[in-house]
Amino acid sequence: MSFGGIEFANPYVLGLLIFVPLMAWWYYKKQDEYIAEVRLSSTQGIAVAQSWKVKARPILQLLQLLAITALLIALARPQVVLKKENVHAEGIDIMLALDVSVSMLAKDFEPDRLSVSKLVAADFVEQRKHDRIGLVVFAGESFTQCPLTTDHNILRSFLSTLECGLIENGTAIGMGLANASKRLKDSDAKSKIIILLTDGENNMGYASPMQASNAAKKLGIKVYTIGVGTKGQAQGPVARRPNGSYIYGWQQVRIDEKLLQKIAKETGGKYFRAQDREQLKAIYSKIDLLERTKIETTTIRNFQEKYHFFVLLAICFILIQVLLANTLFKTIVR
C-alpha cells in the first residue's frame, strides 16, 4: 500500500485507526465521569458560566487520541521507496526517407499527403524512445534533413517544417534510398531499417532504385516501403501561379508498386499501400510491432524508514497530555 510515494510495510495495522473516532465518541459520552462529584447545599454562589479551563479540558482526550493515531501509523511502518532503474536497450537505427515532391500536396488525404505523412511519422518517432532515428527527404534529388539522433524533439521539429517545392521537383526514389543507406552504413546497431514513403514513380536521379536496394541489402539494412495515394484519380498540383500558389486539377495516381514491392522483398522488408490517414497510421503501427527494441530494465529498491517521526510525535503528545493533566487541568478524579 502506498500514498504519495510513502509505502507501508504493515498496512493492515492502519485498519485499527477505525477505533480512533469510536474512542473519541466514547470520551465524549463519558467525559463527566472523569470528574469527581462535590455535593453542595446550594449552587447560588457559583457562577453559571464555565471557565476557559473547563471548556479546554477535552484537549487532554484529543492529545491521547493523537498519540494513539501516531503510534498506529508508526506500527504500520511508513517507508519512502527509493527506486533506481538501469535501462539497457538494444536500439534499432531507423532512417525515414520521405518523398517531398509537389505531388505530395494531392488532396486525397486531408489536408494533403505530406501533412498527414509528417504527423503520422512524428507519432511513430514518439513511440520509439530508445532508438536512433534520422530523416532523409527526396524529390528530384535527395538530402539529409536530420542525421541519426536520440533527440526526438529536434527530429519532430524538422518533420514539422518540411515543405514541398524547396528542392528540384521529381521523384528520385533511388537517390532517397541511397542517401538513407549511406547514413546507416557506419551504424553498429544490431538492426538497421529504412522506412521509405513515396507517392510516385522513379523518374529522376543518377542512382537507380535497384542499385540502391542492392547496396542496402549488402549493408544488412531492411527496407519497408510505403506507397501513399488513392487508387484512381486525385486532385493534385498541375501548375503554379506567379504568387507561388498551386493550381489543382484531377490527375491519375501513379505509384510504382512493383518497384516498391521488389525493394522491400530484396531487403527483407515489406511493402504497404496507404489510401488514407487511418491506413497510414495502421502501417506505422505494424512496422512498430515488427521492429521491437529489446529493453532490459533492472530495478533496485531501497527503503528509508519513516516510523521514527511518528513514534517521536506520539511521545510528544503523551508528554504534553501528562504535563497538562498534572498542572493546568489538574482536578480531583475518582
TrEMBL record:
Keyword terms, alphabetized: Cell membrane, Membrane, Transmembrane, Transmembrane helix
Family annotation (InterPro entries): Aerotolerance_reg_N (IPR024163), UPF0353/GerABKA_families (IPR050768), vWA_BatA_type (IPR033881), VWF_A (IPR002035), vWFA_dom_sf (IPR036465)
Annotated Gene3D superfamilies: von Willebrand factor, type A domain
Domain (VWFA): residue spans on this chain: 93-287
Residues annotated as transmembrane: 12-28, 307-329
Cited SMART domains: VWA (SM00327)
PANTHER family noted in UniProt: LEUCINE ZIPPER PROTEIN 4, SPORE GERMINATION PROTEIN
Protein name: BatA (Bacteroides aerotolerance operon)
Organism: uncultured Aureispira sp
